Amino acid sequence: MHCWELRYMIYPIVKYGDSVLREEALPVEVVNDEIRQFASNMLETMYAANGVGLAAQQVGRALAVCVVHVPPELDQDEEDGEPYNPEIPMPLVMINPRIAASDSTQVGEEGCLSFPEITLDVQRSFSVTVGYIDLDGEAQALECSAFLARAVQHEIDHLNGVLFIDRVSALKKLSIRGQLKRLKKKTDAAME
């Protein structure tokens, strides 16, 4: 199948409680039409769910692929409206990404498509540098900051089996324990 013959498919999004969310991603050996199709389907799934990022584990595959699309209105300074990352085209498809974070941090609200209706304030690096392979199989590197850096860190965490609830204090996690139990119970029931 050639890239102009891609057929889009919306994947079901894996919810908290499914063990695949804790699996570490396997590296992609070759970027081929199957991987390009998978990435396109991930993007369509993310758009359909009104998300800004999605990792392969969230659609049931422990593969080192994630997608991010931060809309312009979320990528601007609140005070002066200037964009933080105007040179980075969206969407981003990152294969086998590796990340280096800055020392400066920011706290911001995060949600996750695998945790519907749960949002938490999470501390993350304000800026990151990411090396990855693109859909042409070429090595790429980018530096990003603010909300885009947050989204990239969130998705790369997924590839490492780390969830955003792992990035908050025990007290904060305790405050959502009931929601997590209900979500896990619902996930378990759906998997039976």
Describe the protein in words.
The chain is of the alpha+beta class. It has a single domain, classed as Peptide Deformylase, CATH 3.90.45. It is 27% helix and 23% strand. The protein is built from four helices and seven strands. The protein has a five-stranded antiparallel beta sheet, sandwiched between helices. The protein has a two-stranded antiparallel ribbon with strand order 4-5. The termini are far apart.
| Assembly classification | single chain
CATH topology: Peptide Deformylase
Elements, N to C (H/E): HEEEEEEEHHH
Q: How big a fraction of the residues is strand?
A: 15-25%
From the alpha carbons, calculate the radius of gyration and give it in angstroms: 17 Å
How do the strands of the widest beta sheet line up side by side? Answer: 1-2-3-6-7
Give the fraction of residues assigned to helices. 25-40%
Class by SSE composition: alpha+beta
- Summed up, the helix count is 4
Please give the alpha-carbon distance between the first and last residues: 35 Å
Shape: globular
Number of domains: 1
In the CATH scheme, the class would be Alpha Beta
Mean pLDDT: 94
Largest sheet: 5 strands, antiparallel
Named at the architecture level, the CATH assignment is Alpha-Beta Complex
**Topology, number of strands:** 7
**Poorly predicted parts:** 1-5
Task: Provide the CATH superfamily.
Answer: Peptide deformylase
